[in-house]
Design a protein that fits this description.
The protein is of the alpha/beta class. The protein is built from 15 helices and 15 strands. The protein has helices spanning 21-37, 56-70, 80-85, 100-106, 124-133, 153-164, 182-192, 223-227, 230-248, 257-270, 293-296, 397-401, 411-421, 430-450, 465-472, and strands spanning 11-16, 45-50, 87-91, 112-117, 142-145, 172-174, 206-214, 279-284, 307-312, 324-329, 336-343, 361-367, 371-379, 388-394, 455-457. Strands 14-13-12-11-7-10-9-8-15 form a 9-stranded mixed β-sheet, with helices on both faces. Helix 6 runs antiparallel to helix 14, helix 9 packs across helix 14 (430-450) and helix 10 (257-270) packs parallel to helix 14. The longest helix is centred in the last third of the chain and has 21 residues, at 430-450. It is globular and about 75 Å long. The structure holds 6-O-phosphono-beta-D-glucopyranose. 6-O-phosphono-beta-D-glucopyranose binds at residues 215, 234, 337.
Length: 481
């Protein structure tokens, strides 16, 4: 039942930072899987571009190792050799002249040209300018840029302006890998391809919404980046914000990039200011011999949050009165990402309180075990009167769609293929990113001005106690992790 694989047009993909972590962990193993599936055409060319002094043979060996370890592929896989043949390498000085002419000669004239900036944002301007100067990027070429797209509104505006000097908006693909997740896209299908949910999709029927992205991992190994960022910048401004947008947006008139992104932008602009007492920040502590956050980031005075929970409102007719609770954190009890749409109780219960549970919750689970369930209330089977019980109506994809689900591309694969197709629907537009930063900045400024210190929480717990209060005060509670 998985949709047919339609090969994309022949392309030349240049990956700046081609020997870096992201390229080795995600981009190249992902492309390999698309090659195996038949979606990447035989004639495609991938060129790694980086500072390191590799020749082509060494680069291919490096990528082979990466595909085997991160892609969990056996070195004897029959498609590995033909895939690696598609791979070239150019040693490039992104701030100087070295390598650009070599790169120019390698690019073919009749293919889709894509340039993946898998490097820090401080290099975006240099690369963009040289791609244009050497006529390697043309008016129909595409560039892909990664997060972090700035660290506040001003830096995001600077980045947008820098890129805009060399490329039009329709050439720029800003990746948020959450938008490439299968369930996230399914959320749109569930909302807009069924009559069932949309009539109830408003504050008259929805009590509140919980968005949770809980991780088990800590920040060890990424401390230098993370301590300057924190959960708000690293996760909320982008991933959780995108989930919120897809839940809250009005139905776009078409499933096309401008229509979808216009609607998401309206949601971000309608987000209410967040009250200081509606934000809870936390930092994980040591457990046993395992170090805590401050040791991981090597900053014993750090005030950066590894956990954040907040309550916000979307100020429009549809959502007035339905709060959105967001939480994300590292080193929590378990890895769990989900959106829970909690419906109101029926206005009148004919069964009385003793009958038991009532109510509906739609849970869109991103990971692990992605799927969608709807809790419904039914009669507990058997004799003994009318007792009610909540059971999930399970729309778990693996069961419904069978074993071929394994072939479903992961987030990066899907998004890279969308770039090749020239489809920007699942990429963030410049104004969207700026609006998200504007909202985020006001919250961060608030806690910085107050000199707020994050609350400690135990590693492998559900986060700081105060985050429970955020909901308890409203007579609600977080779903358990
Ligand atoms: C990244 C963040 O964007 O997303 C990481 O920088 C985080 O801190 C990661 O761990 C989570 O992604 P996923 O797909 O594992 O939920």
């Amino acid at each position: 039942m998985v949709s047919r694989v339609i090969p994309v047009d022949p392309f030349d993909l240049v990956i700046f930072g081609g020997s870096g972590d992201l390229a080795r962990r995600k981009i190249l193993p992902g492309l390999f899987r698309r090659f195996v599936s038949g979606q990447m055409p035989e004639s495609a060319q991938i060129i790694g571009a980086a500072r390191s002094d590799f020749d082509e043979v060494q680069y291919r060996a490096l990528i082979k190792d990466a595909i085997c370890s991160f892609g969990e592929i056996k070195a004897s896989h029959p498609d590995l050799a033909p895939f690696l043949e598609r791979l070239g390498y150019v040693r490039i000085d992104v701030r100087g002249d070295g390598g650009w002419q070599v790169l120019e000669k390698k690019i073919r004239s009749d293919t889709v040209r894509v340039f993946y900036f898998s490097v820090g944002p401080s290099l975006f301007g240099d690369i963009a300018q040289r791609l244009r100067q050497h006529r390697i990027a043309l008016n129909d070429s595409r560039i892909v840029v990664e997060k972090p797209f700035g660290r506040d509104l001003i830096s995001a505006q600077d980045l947008n302006n820098t890129l805009a000097r060399h490329f039009n908006e329709d050439q720029i693909y800003r990746i948020d890998h959450y938008l490439g997740k299968e369930t996230v896209q399914n959320l749109m299908a569930v909302r807009f391809a069924n009559i069932l949910f949309e009539p109830l999709w408003n504050s008259q029927y929805i009590d509140h919404i919980q968005i949770t992205v809980a991780e088990k991992v800590g920040v060890d190994g990424r401390g230098e980046y993370y301590d300057k960022s924190g959960a708000m910048r690293d996760m909320v401004q982008n991933h959780l914000m995108q989930l919120l947008c897809l839940i809250a947006m009005e139905p776009p008139s078409q499933f096309n990039p401008e229509a979808v992104r216009d609607e998401k932008l309206k949601v971000i602009r309608a987000l209410d200011q967040v009250e200081p007492h509606h934000v809870v920040r936390g930092q994980y502590g040591p457990v046993g011999d395992a170090p805590g956050y401050r040791d991981h980031v090597d900053n014993l005075a750090s005030r950066t949050e590894s956990y954040i929970a907040l309550k916000t409102n979307v100020k429009n007719w549809r959502w007035a009165g339905t709060p959105f609770y967001l939480r994300t954190g590292k080193r929590l009890k378990q890895r769990l990402s989900e959106i829970a749409v909690v419906f109101k109780d029926p206005p009148h219960s004919i069964f009385g309180k003793v009958a038991g549970a009532q109510g509906n919750t739609l849970v869109i689970r991103l990971q692990p075990d992605e799927g969608i369930t709807m809790d419904v209330t039914i009669k507990e089977p058997g004799p003994g009167g009318m007792r009610l019980v909540n059971v999930p109506l399970d729309m778990t994809f693996a069961e419904a769609l069978g074993p071929t689900l394994e072939d479903v591309p992961d987030a990066y694969e899907r998004l890279i293929m969308d770039v090749m197709r020239g489809n920007q629907t699942l990429f963030m537009r410049g104004d969207e990113v700026e609006a998200a930063w504007k909202w985020t900045d006001s919250i961060i400024e608030g806690w910085e001005n107050r000199g707020d210190v994050p609350k400690p929480y135990d590693s492998h717990s559900a986060g700081p106690q105060d985050s429970l209060m955020l909901l308890n005060r409203d007579n609600r509670k977080w779903r358990s992790l």
